[in-house]
Amino acid sequence: MSTLHRTIVRPIVTERTSAAYQARGEYVFEVATDATKPAIRQAIERLFGVKVTGVWTMNARGKTRRVGRGAAGRRPNWKKAFVTLREGDKIEGYGFEG
To answer: Which residue, among 31, 13, 10, has the nearest Cα to 22 in the 3D structure?
Structure first.
């Protein structure tokens, strides 16, 4: 990965991710498909100035959808990362209050 902003694509803020944050203090990000766990850890620590204690990744397959006049289309595959921070650290402006 050449830049930090290419590694971290966007935060994912849904009901499920906000529940994960409240229960376990996990943040969820969409990351580049070729991003490794050490690269994700380094990008989060440098972008937000926090200490990362754990990174879990998951590859999500793109869904097949019907587009146009019944032709089959496909959404792209993507990757998400679940990040746990050191006790007391927070990412400000993530999308919900902590």
So the answer is: 13
